[in-house]
Write a structure and sequence with these properties.
Strand content: under 5%
CATH topology of the largest domain: Tetracycline Repressor, domain 2
Number of strands: 0
Number of domains: 2
Number of helices: 11
Distance between the termini: 49 Å
Order of helices and strands: HHHHHHHHHHH
CATH superfamily of the largest domain: Tetracycline Repressor, domain 2
CATH class of the largest domain: Mainly Alpha
Helix content: 55-70%
Shape: elongated
Largest sheet: none
Length: 200
């Protein structure tokens, strides 16, 4: 069942605000340990008010994971990720991924905790692997173009880069100093200096 994120139903909560609270509770308690009764209590509404927006808790999980994944894949379709030298496209994807993570921190945190315990989670993991392949292909292309040092496997480079990006879920907190752009600048400065085959 597809539901437009901006749809409004009964007064008080849009689907977006419902999703924000659901993601927060899923991150706090774990998806499996969260009941619809608990979500309703946190929202201050009845369960029927939630069901007005979504048919099930599973749909809330799917929407939350899609929010993070759709934003990540959108980065790979931006002009900076599709034109120019592969090393520049890779940098664009890394910067864009940091931007997504800092803007959608709760949803990305939830995504990174998915273990494939349900069809919805398995689908999310498959999409994550497709995103990883996009990054690995960019690293490989940059290596072939002579801009990335050839002594590290592209898949390892990709994992290391996004290990650094994903670690932001453990320590980054909006409004406490660095914004997403500053974080991206710092990450690129540290990682790409070691990644490039020659200074440019």
């Amino acid at each position: 069942m597809s539901i437009a994120p901006g749809r409004r139903g009964r007064p008080g909560h849009s689907l977006d605000s419902l999703l924000d609270v659901a993601v927060a509770v899923f991150n706090e308690r774990g998806y499996d340990a969260t009941s619809m009764d608990e979500l309703a209590a946190r929202l201050g509404v009845t369960k029927s008010a939630i069901y007005h927006h979504v048919p099930s808790k599973v749909e809330l999980l799917r929407l939350a994971l899609d929010r993070a994944l759709d934003a990540l894949f959108a980065v790979t379709e931006e002009p900076g990720a599709t034109t120019g030298p592969a090393i520049d496209r890779l940098e664009h994807v890394v910067r864009g991924s940091v931007r997504v993570l800092t803007a959608e921190l709760p949803s990305v945190t939830l995504l990174l905790r998915v273990r494939g315990n349900s069809p919805v989670e398995q689908e999310a993991l498959q999409r994550r692997r497709r995103f990883d392949r996009v990054v690995t292909d960019l690293v490989r292309a940059a290596e072939e173009e002579g801009d990335v040092r050839p002594d590290v496997d592209p898949a390892v480079t990709s994992r290391l880069l996004f290990g650094a990006v994903n670690s932001l879920t453990e320590w980054y907190r909006p409004g406490r100093g660095l914004d997403g752009t500053a974080v991206a600048d710092a990450l690129v400065a540290i990682t790409f200096d070691g990644l490039r085959a020659t200074s440019r």
